Amino acid sequence: MSPAECRYLSGAEAHVGPLKNTRLYKLWDQLRSSYWFLPTVIVALSIGLASLLIVADHRYPFDQTSRSSWLFLGTAESARVILSTIATAMITIVSLTFSMTIVVLTLASSQFGPRLIYNFMRDRNNQVALGVFLACFVFCILILRSVKSDVAGNFVPQLGTTAAMAFALFSVGTLIFFIHHIADSIHASRIIANVRNELELIVTRLMPARSGTGLSEETEWQRLMDMIDSSSMPIAARDRGILQAIEEAELLEWAQRHDLLIRLYHRPGAFVIRGTPLFEVYPRERVPVDQLVLLQDAFRFGNKRTLVQDIEFAFQQLVEIGVRALSPGINDQFTAM
């Protein structure tokens, strides 16, 4: 194993890495790259808004003779027609949005590489558009449920129906923006620029300070290797999968507290098999065996590569775009350049 393939975390380190809470950052990255979190938040807000407007309509009813030009003053039947029409249109738009998103993901995967799906999933504009359409549908359903016209009495949610009409107009504008954005997002220059921006962000986040001791001289590395190999304790991985992140701050703090040295066998982005050596601790005789579980918990595994700590992933995305552009099936020299 070469010096570049090893990482050393020593108790003599006086500082920790720049990314101190990898667990929360990984959770945020998973939520950001999902198509359910942000739409769910927007739908929840629409449910709260619908409930507030229904309560306001009950407590502060408007007179039917009011001349407010912006307020809906129709009957219960007309309110039902308007709300049901908007709800039907919104669920149709949601289906269209899903279809267009799947088409774009398929095109990006075949044209630029499957690794770029991760970047498209992180696109917040698509998530917001989907959330707005779903929120408008749920909002109209809740307002429609409150409309009453029976022997017990009539209730027309004037504020709620007016808000539903405004919500529908806003959704139309969101649909126009979504169509423009989804068409612009598959341009090769736009995709490359997005990957470059992600690369700059991760380099800025991870590289402002060193979080371990790198050994560049062959003699120093060989001397340390001989010393560690003779009296170190290898620790096996409890999980399998792609190593997505390492809690370097926790490892450094633990090594400093016990005056030990930790050698990492893998860096984020590598696939690790359960039971294979994950890291080793030197010297063996001073290792508190009862705390090794805490060290193993500092390694975060998953099923896919992410940009939490995996800098090579962004480089590989750019390389894959260039390699595919030069393939005989695509033959796009300008994209490769």
From TrEMBL:
The chain crosses the membrane at residues 35-56, 81-107, 128-147, 159-180. This is DUF2254 domain-containing protein. The keyword Membrane applies. It comes from the Bacteria. The keyword Transport does not apply. Keywords: Membrane, Transmembrane, Transmembrane helix. The lineage of its organism: Bacteria, Pseudomonadati, Pseudomonadota, Gammaproteobacteria, Chromatiales. It comes from Sedimenticola selenatireducens.
